[in-house]
Here is the input.
Amino acid sequence: MVALITGLLGFLFGAILVYGRLNKFDTISGAARLTDFTVPKAIAVTIGVGVMFLALEIGIGLAEFHVKPFMTGGIILGGLLFGAGMAILGYCPGTLFVSAGEGALDAMVGIVGGLSGGVVFTLLLPSIEGVLGPDLGKLSLASITGGSGFLYGFLVIVIGVAFISVAMFLHRKEKTSDMRWLYSGIALAILNSVVFLTAVSNRPIGASTAFPYLGDRIVGLTNNSYFEKITKPGLWELVFLTGALLAGFVFSLIKKDFKFRMIYSGWKYTKGGSVYNRALWAFAGGFILVFGARMAGGCTSGHIISGGMQLAFSSLVFAVFVFTGLLLTGKVFYGKKQSRDTE
Here is the structure.
């Protein structure tokens, strides 16, 4: 029953991403090239709306905080690596599965790269633990204000409105009439708030832990403390992502656009039409993406969105370094600036 509910939540997650086109290579790589603001707009709205929903849930005792610790080195270095991998790959850990369900071959290669990155991280963790610290603890707005009272409630509303305002500013700057990003962002905030409920999952949405969990199981790397630590969240996320993959497949059939594809317009315009070249970089991007996520302890959904909704300092700082890595890599890797891409 628990697996069924988790899979259903994942299916809804995938459906939201498909509706908002938040899983598409051209959409995510477009953010790296500053030609498409769909992803940052949706993330900002999700955090802005979600922070208020979640504060209300926690305030009335229906949910709990799940703040990630501020591992300084991991947040900074992992954030930069994650952003770089996201720019090259054109997917996040969660969107990889949705797009793979739609037939995206580069996403499938990226999953293999991500599994490899997860395995290598497990192997290297004992030797790089010192780089990930120091651990500043589970810092958040709630931890420094007490998480209740007028001041906390006031700041939650102000910050939530600020995030929504940033999204609307980007939308005006982009000059597009498409509002699916807004509805998708609100839907993601609601879905994540539901997942947070103690009566549902009592945890946030996440995706990157599934990669070392599955990768370690495949190669038999299970006799270590890290695998023991990630077994429960990794299994939950794997079931969740299976539901997301199914959503990508089902909706692509409904829309009659399921197709095995390796090259998308944004890649072809900037990097050419070589399938071999795209596969190589998809693998490398997936590897870097997941390795960075595991250094930081989370990804776009599990850290930036879920942590952002909790106003966790680790997640907000991680987001800054992710977008820094994303934009720097986009400028260097893609080079050309172009108009908005279409598939």
